[in-house]
What we know:
This protein is of the alpha/beta class. The protein contains 22 helices and 16 strands.
Amino acid sequence: MLASTFTAALVGVSAELVHVEADVSHGLPGFTIVGLPDASVRESRDRVRSAIRSVGLDFPPHRITVNLSPADLRKAGSSFDLPIAVAVLAASGQLSPALTARAVVLGELALDGRALPCRGVLPATLASRAADMDLVVVPRGNVPEARLVPGVDVRGASTLTEALRALQQGSEPTPLPPAAIPGGAQVDAPDVADVQGQALARRALEIAAAGHHNLLFTGPPGAGKSMLARRLPGLLPPWTFEEALEATAVHSAAGLVPPEGGLLPLRPFRAPHHTVSTAALVGGGSQPRPGEISLAHHGVLLLDELPEFERRTLDVLRQPLEDGVVHLARATRSVTFPAGFLLVAAMNPCPCGYRGHPRRACRCRPGDAERYASRVSGPLLDRIDLVVQVPPVEVEALTGPRVTAEGSEAIRARVIAARHQQAGRQGRVNSRLVGAPLDALRRDPRVSGLLAQAMTRLDLSARAADRLLRVARTIADLGGSTGVERSHLAEALQFRPC
């Protein structure tokens, strides 16, 4: 007897539906899975057999063949256990094949028949909605995540028996967790008011948040570079439901959605160590999985001690910084990961860190500082809009009377207003400004003369000049100006590397 159901296979951060066919026929007992399964899927034979027997059902003592199609798509992961078990039970007559033919089933099985949560449920549910499937059955722990997708009948199961009951009769809906739909500010982010002094660096944070501009802090140890960088997420505007859904889908594909499920409550903030590999940073592997830059999608990526990263690893960031996506090509398939992150980096001016320090002497040998800085390539620096020299903190700022500084909430209000201006004017953030609007800025007589002087004296590339104009446009938006003035471009020039 032949029966079938559907499941999903992850391809990058999206999912493709997989048709699970089971045939139970007379012959020598055996259990074969075909359709390009990897080791974890082939091992599901033993988990399925034990789970069926543990819940008191009959495992058919016949020849069982399970086909996973399309056959040219590699199947990996333990989420195929539950759909294979359902298809086998339907093929052996213990469940009506009509109930499984239009269902999408996902989940790992324990030997005692429990349905265990699996990764990639949110992308799989999105694929099910696109294919107009009747219902989706997932482990109980994945229900809040799956029900983030509107218009899909999601049913949860804690055991294999409950999964069969869900296919036959439905199950009680599980309410969404309170934080499923984000709104409001990033209340957990540290406040920029904690930073004493550093007026120029604080201004750079505001500009970076308002226009989504990449930012680099350079200065001696203890100047507050990392402290400043970690306060950038608190200045970003609240994200939309669509942005939160995209970011949660990436984390779901990586298996990082918390057990309670639901949308990520805050914009991602990722800070990988400088020993991170290229694959871990941009994604990869035999079964490509998202890297740190994709996990920071719609959030912030902090690269502290920038020159300590492998230069080859840093240079891989060039294309994602330009396009907002990363393309990975493999022999059998190419995948695309989203990478719309905001980069904030920090570095010392030399190996010892004290070059140019007003009170401490640099211990580096001649040429060490230049070699240290050259670890970060020129083309990568060309893609960073704002470069800020962070001086050491003055003793009086730490020991004298505390000066009340402007907090994140007030700055965030200006950032939100600037973002609204950008959305109404061009439908995108200023860092993505291209085409006719950018060309009009370039030829505006109010700034064209100063721009020409800057390109000549600073030897700016065409890309750097465009980024300079985008920063000037953001500064104008923060000031509520409809046009870019010479003063806006002059302020933007402060943030170009010398």
